[in-house]
Amino acid sequence: MRTSLTPHAAAALVPDGATIMIGGFMGVGTPNRVIDALVARGARNLTVIANDTARPGVGIGKLIGAGAVSRAIVSHIGTNPETQRAMLAGEIAVDLVPQGTLAERVRAGGSGLGGVLTTTGLGTVVAEGKTVVRVGGREFLVEEALRAAVALVAARSADYAGNLVYTLTARNFNPLMAMAAETVIAEPNEIVPVGVLAPDVIHTPGVLVDHLVERPLPL
């Protein structure tokens, strides 16, 4: 059985300078209460691996606005002008990775692989400084796997064994990231007794989840 933590207790498990993965897409499927707690404690020098940096004041955008992020490994920053400004000012290092490549690098990290081969980015700035190999008469970029110290994921439902269920777009990146981090902290909307979630609807098995964030208080 997984014990549930307050958002602030969960944030305390993320040390300054850590590399963290944050699930979701444009703030959907992002653990907002843990992010709020990270901002409240003044987290600093985080490397964030995520699909995007959302928008100002939304999801990961809150960490950007608070100056908590020193490096972002993401597929785009086009919806967050604060990230763009910080990058141009040299305040944040941004690694832009094609979205499919980013997902595969995370998947490789969770599967124990060293990296993936892809043709995406060949002949562009994406390939600068990277290894190119030839397989079957074709050239491929070698993209290294990604792992993190902590993955912060959000789920619609969890049971007390840590099994997780996501909904629609909120599923983006969360299952992959739950496999690619040393510590996985899940923030569900609800926590139900073991047995309520049917086995065939579970997206992330509880064996991968280290901590649950307590369910939010009803409005």
What does this structure look like?
With 219 residues, the protein is α/β, with parallel strands linked by helices. The protein has helices at residues 7-12, 32-41, 60-65, 81-88, 99-111, 174-177; strands at 4-5, 19-22, 46-49, 69-74, 93-96, 115-118, 132-135, 138-144, 148-159, 164-165, 181-192, 211-213. Strands 1, 2, 3, 4, 5, 9, 10, 11 and 12 form a nine-stranded mixed beta sheet that branches. A three-stranded antiparallel beta sheet has the order 6-8-7. The longest helix has 13 residues, at 99-111.
CATH topology: Glutaconate Coenzyme A-transferase
CATH top level class name: Alpha Beta
- What level of helicity do the residues show? 10-25%
- Poorly predicted parts: none
Written as H for each helix and E for each strand, in order along the chain, the element string is EHEHEHEHEHEEEEEHEE
- CATH level-four homologous superfamily name: Glutaconate Coenzyme A-transferase
Instruction: Summarize the main sheet.
Output: 9 strands, mixed
Overall outline: globular
Number of domains: 1
The Rg value, from CA coordinates, equals 18 Å
Mean pLDDT: 94
Family: Belongs to the 3-oxoacid CoA-transferase subunit A family.
Protein name: 3-oxoacid CoA-transferase subunit A
InterPro entries: 3-oxoacid_CoA-transf_A (IPR012792), CoA_trans_fam_I (IPR004165), CoA_transf_BS (IPR004163), NagB/RpiA_transferase-like (IPR037171)
GO molecular function, one term: CoA-transferase activity
Please give a handful of descriptors for the protein shown.
219 residues; alpha/beta; Glutaconate Coenzyme A-transferase; 3-stranded antiparallel β-sheet; 29% strand
